[in-house]
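Async update (no meeting this week)

Hi team, since we skipped the sync, here's where things stand on the single-chain job. The sequence we agreed to prioritize is pasted below, unchanged from the tracker. I ran it this morning and attached the output directly underneath so nobody has to dig for it. Comments welcome in thread, and please keep replies under the output.
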Amino acid sequence: MTPGRRSSTFTRLLRHGFTDPSAAERLLDCPELIPVRDDPVLLEALGGTADPDLALHGLVRLLEAQDGPTAHRELLDTLIAAKPLRDRLLGVLGASTALADHLARHPGDWQALVTYEPHDLHPGLTEFERGLEAATDPVSLRIAYRRCLLSIAARDVCGTTEMADTAAELADLATATLRAALTIAEAAAPEDAAACRLAVIAMGKCGGHELNYVSDVDVIFVAESAEDTSEAKALRSATRLASHLMRICSESTVEGSIWPVDANLRPEGRNGPLVRTLSSHLAYYQRWAKTWEFQALLKARPVAGDTDLGRAYIDALEPLVWQAAERDNFVTDVQKMRRRVVENIPAAEVERELKLGPGGLRDVEFAVQLLQLVHGRTDASLRSGTTLDALQALAAGGYVGREDTARLDEAYRFLRSMEHRIQLYRLRRTHLVPEAESDLRRLGRSLGLRTDPVAELHREWKRHTGVVRRLHEKLFYRPLLDAVAQLAPGETRLSPEAARERLVALGYADPAAALRHLEALASGVTRKAAIQRTLLPVLLGWFAESADPDAGLLNFRKVSDALGKTPWYLRLLRDEGAAAENLARVLSAGRLAPDLLMRAPEAVALLGDGTGMGAGMGTGTSAGSGRGLAPRDRAHLEQEVLAAAGRAENVEQGVAAARGVRRRELFRTAAADIVSSYGTETSPAEADQGALVDRVGAAVSDLTAATLAGTLRAVVRDGWGDTLPTRFAIIGMGRFGGHELGYGSDADVLFVHEPRDGVPEQEAATAAGKVVTEMRRLLQLPSSDPPLLIDADLRPEGKSGPLARTLKSYEAYYRRWSLVWESQALLRAEPVAGDEDLGRRFTALIDPLRYPLHGLGEDAVREIRRLKARMESERLPRGADPKLHTKLGPGGLSDVEWTVQLLQLRHGWHLPGLRTTRTREALSAACEAGLLSVEDTATLDEAWVLATRVRNAVMLVRGRAGDTFPTEPRELAAVGRYLGYGAGHAGDMLDAYRRTTRRARAVVDELFYGDGVRAGAGSGG
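Output:
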């Protein structure tokens, strides 16, 4: 061959899509192809395949395998003369090495591609049964199956059939194969065949008439006894037949396998019997079946065995399928299952997962099935097992918008075509997009992308998955807006009854009110209404994930009404990724956060991601520093509160400003807590429950301290100018001093003062008393901001004693009259506002009381135990379940705190780590010092954190403080959602609480009441 000739051929091969022209030249020069090597028809046809190199290699193998010169010549002549064969054969060889292998083993099977009759173009079940009828054993069945598969693949790669028809043909071939396999099994065991009536029900994609090239074929077996046969014997016979059928299809032979037959969708899955009677199936589905099992039955279709029994199975179970949407938490169950599927995909594969990944095939299928189950109860036209048929029926009935339908239909067809071509290559079950350049190039070309196959494939793939991601959940919600909007002529809207059904399925208790809210928000032609129509489909989905979607939607309407005319509000929700979802979580999680927000709706700006916080809001906003939901430290809060109080014209305005900051920051804290507890689509829920508790406790305590500091400043300035006649300090006590305040906590405090030089003690006492009285009054004045209650009952002499004392008075009292419970209470004392030096001297005064030298004596220990036992018996509210009382119940807050405080009183004098006002810090220090085992520490910490979380949840949900779980079901469910329990799992939450506190109580019994806490006398070792 001359260099010029070689160069010319090489160039022609490159132009026709060959990637290895040198190897292709060698193949074209082989003896088998000499007669047609220079025929332009051949080269053109090879260039039209998905992989010309692969097609040429397969053709040479097929020619080499022909049985003699006559067969060889017949193949070549037909190949050149008959374009249908040429396109089909070379198309298959360029797309599938597995089918090329089959043709090399069975070189006469190319004849199956020659015929071009009408019935050959669109074969059905009858044609496939005819193609398999000669098979009498597993090996011959495999050969016949591949021969039929060859014809399906040929029509597919040539474009003679489109994706949906190919999937239907594959399902028909699977049906014919199951029938043939059952015939073989019955022939091998005629006694078993005579003893029973066995029906094979196809499920999944086979049942839905939309099968892949390589997929598990999901089935369910149902059997009844034949005449004169006992049920037990019939079931044994049917089980043997079913098992043999599965082996015939699944086991590998010299001809490979067909596909696995999977019966795990049966009642009880792989733990249940392989075959059941119809009555047994019915009993299971009536009593035990989960939501997903009814979803799976959407695609049930009798395909083999006893036709009457198969039909009876469908007739018996179909009514149950269409009642599934009436089950509690139906939508959440389905959506949770979908999320679980995504979460189980290995991280390295999630972006390549064509079927299960975000924006993949399963998203379309789940969305369609969800809508079918909701609306198919009253509209039989929706009861198709085929995804695309069901999608079109949903559009025709107005259940899905036509534009969304068209885009989803296109995306689903493209993604399924990708899946088909990926599997066809090696006939292996996979849903992963390949990574190799050569595989991507072949895949792209097989889909008609020829200019730059890899880049075009990637672009189209991502475009279609993006469409599915955006639409699959909106598909459920957007028609609800169309139901209340003005539609273009010819568009079909969701009927009021269908809209009601859908809202009920989503968990709305008052669908009529929900539709009114949607109409108020989204109707009209304004830009505001247009943005709402974009936002609401997503928001409705987030509301539906909460325990009270009605409240979420109502609250959103209230906020939107309040902020509707501000230019930044809807822009914030539309443009800042986090804002809309954060708002949805906050508005539907309970009463507290929405109530705080409604009092100053501009605080919604805090919910953004910080990139454009408060943009366009103007300088007068009170939305804070622009740090989104990140908590602000005490120094910054105090600076803002003091500045606001200083600018005020009078004391009332100064304290109102301080309370306004407190309200805004309470909302920030509550919103951050809710978002962290619920999680978002981009970040999971916070796993460290203790961190959540610590953040809330620190934030609310810092905020309370800053509010008291600002109020003190305003009161002093109003009554005495810059200087009060007496130095004045506020000491935080209880949870306040421990940095553990909850949303509903009062501020436990002590007031201490010290007359300035030359000021009579009575004048100082009068001034201090007025300050305290005025602070308490101003912080409780009726206003739009929540009150801050100041509780000074832990002071010396309790309610009988003066509200404020001098430092000397405290010293005299504690020296002479102090009781052991007061020493215990002082463990939590910490200065929080006012004169810092006075606060430090107060701390120095009380340290010897709370950390007594050499620890407590045994009499004092007995007194503490006696007080604790009396409190448990006397203070528990009448009718309360002790095991669910977070404060006083066994293993609750009081148990853990008193145990820790007893350790502090006994060992704080020689262990500096125990000298802290914070429960968890003291617990950790006790563990490090060897006073507690690691296991006991973890048990107590877990119980304390859980009880604190429950108290916070109750306040967030109900809007008022409480120490027990709510009894109203929606409120209880909302507490569960905050604690990480899904819909329908409130009982699991209560069981977990009892379990956790029961373990903690056992530790308390040993350490507090028993001998677990040893005396602290000694040298400090």
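Quick observations from my side:
The first helix runs from residue 3 to 15.
Confidence is low (pLDDT under 50) at residues 1-5, 610-626, 1013-1021.
Reply here if anything looks off.
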